[in-house]
Amino acid sequence: MINLIDSFSEFKNMKSIDRPTMVRVLEDVFRTLIRKKYGADDNFDIIVSTIEGDLEIWRKREIVPDGEVEDDRYHIAISDAVKIEEDYEVGEECYEKVGVADFGRRAIMAARQTLISRILELEKDKVYQMYADRIGDLIFGEVAQTLKREFVIVDEATGAELMLPKSETIRGDYFRKGDMVRAVVDRVENKNNNPMVILSRTASSFLERLLEQEVPEIEDGLITVRKIVRAPGDRAKVAVESYDERIDPVGACVGMKGSRIHGIVRELRNENIDIINYTSNEALLIQRALTPARISSVELDLDNRKASVFLEAAEISKAIGKKGVNIKLASRLVDYNIDVFREGAFDTDADFDVELDEFRDEIEDWVIDELKNIGCDTARNVLNLSLDELLRRTDLEEETIKEIIVVLKAEFDDGGKDLPDPVEEEAEEESSEEDSAE
């Protein structure tokens, strides 16, 4: 005979399900068996031992004289009662122990499957609720499996299996089975009634949790992280603010000789982290956000959330950054669309300019987008950069860049075709003088 209690013993040590819940599930399963066999369960007591995993079922009925049993579910004749215990008398309650085997093999097998199913459902619900309340929390776990598209991580604290998709890893992350990994809970999904806890190492909250670990002032609430933006594996910008004037928030986050930030940089595969002091002065915040570039001046268009930043030619490449990463992150950090201009480039009326979007009939959209990614929104922005500089900062071929330059120069040549060229005019005058002399 299959012992249904064994099923309880298999699951009673699960950490994520409390014992009262386990006992309640076991009682529910047995009460279903009782109702099917006896028609009612209100006069049955079920006693479960959570320590040993044992279970006892007691049936309670009123003792009546022989021949006066109206409902055998609630009444028992005195002649049957004394067979259970000789001291019973009419009018007393008779307690009869019911064995699990009395329900029959088929009923026990069905109940066992129901018990296992109910406990697994509880386990899934518990995992879902537990991690749904921990979105953004730091997880430390061991790599149990390396699959094609994801890593299976076992949470060291709970033993639950979590998923770290490779799309949520930093460039340069490579984990093998048995490696210990840190990540944050990004989201919890239900797929085919199975909870899937998705981890991330690219989320901004991951960097925030690492900072909390390394900087006690953040954990104590003396320093607040106002905003974090990241290009995972490349660069991150963190705006911090201190509520204590005696504490330098940037210095506290960096640490003595970079002691605090170095560990985080290593964890993030040498991701450059710019820590800036938050301020409500938006122009000043934009200057700080464009670190390491030095800004000459900033003009704000508050209605359209646009900022025109002017700086020396040597600082432009720093402000824009490799593949435009620095200026993109700065724009996200301050919530402004930032345009970079060379200082003094538009001081005279002769220096008219044309937006790159005006050339979409002649230049492909993806090429214009590539130029915009490095901060070149106008024709003169592009022409102010050398061929070598354009090659270095974009993914465009040399031939393509030369064709773009021809197209853009043609616009300015056409715009001034009716104006005499001083160089050509002087050359013509010299030629005329020579002819006269001859």
Automatic annotation (TrEMBL):
InterPro entries: KH_dom-like_a/b, KH_NusA_2nd, KH_sf_prok-type, NA-bd_OB-fold, NusA_N_sf, S1_domain, TF_NusA, TF_NusA_bacterial. Gene3D superfamilies: 3.30.300.20, Nucleic acid-binding proteins, NusA, N-terminal domain. Pfam families: KH_NusA_1st, KH_NusA_2nd, NusA_N. SUPFAM superfamilies: Nucleic acid-binding proteins, Prokaryotic type KH domain (KH-domain type II), Transcription factor NusA, N-terminal domain. GO terms for molecular function: DNA-binding transcription factor activity; RNA binding; translation elongation factor activity. It is found in: Cytoplasm. The keyword Transcription regulation applies. Residues 413-438 are annotated as: Disordered. Its main location: cytoplasm. Belongs to the NusA family. Participates in both transcription termination and antitermination. This is Transcription termination/antitermination protein NusA. It comes from Saprospira grandis (strain Lewin).
